[in-house]
Amino acid sequence: MASVSTDLNDPRFTAFGLFAEAFTGLTNRFAAQFEEHRLSSVEFEVLMRLARSSGRRLRMTDLAGQTSLSTSGVTRVVDRMDRDGLVRREACPSDRRSSFAVITDAGVSRLDEVLPGHLELLQQWFIGQLGPGQLDDMLESLRTIRDAVNPCATAGTTEAAA
To answer: Which Pfam families match (predicted)?
Structure first.
């Protein structure tokens, strides 16, 4: 049997492994709560991005850059959410090839239903696990990494809303 020449105890493996395990654990805890409100995690992410954006809308391409979805994936999700009345599409007046996704009043209402429980989960399993200063340090670190690997993540919005 051939041996592995790389140090499997390399702290880079540990750092990413811990990040992935934490993300997966949080995602699993959030999923059940989203389902109670008839939303997928992706739909929640879309509603949050739109609600936190100027004019409560984003170009479809900017929404793709800010989410875990491809451009075609965003189109499918927005079309489904449009049928459910949570978002609507608007033509871009300055570019006929582009359109906006806009959160509707029904989408805002659905977020209003979800957010109290979601904030409780965030506090219990995420923010509440961190001591003073750790959250600020983590946010700074995550923004640095996000900006390197996904420079389009803040397209169409301000950093404060990202």
So the answer is: MarR
Locate all alpha helices (DSSP H) within the chain, ordered by sequence.
11-36, 41-51, 60-66, 71-83, 105-125, 134-149
Cα separation, 126 vs 86, whole angstroms: 28
Fold observed for domain 31-150? Arc Repressor Mutant, subunit A (1.10.10)
State CA 155 to chain mean position distance: 13
Q: What's the token pair of residue 144?
A: 């640095």
Look at the block and give the residue holding tokens 């540990």.
14
pLDDT in tens, 64-76: 988 878 888 999 9
- Residue-range domain boundaries for the chain: 31-150
Q: Which residues contact 47 (CB under 8 A, 6 or more apart)?
A: 39, 81, 86, 87, 103, 107, 110, 111
Dihedral of the alpha carbons of 54, 57, 63, 67, in degrees to the nearest 10: 70
76, two tokens = 């499918």
- The pLDDT assigned to 121 comes to 96
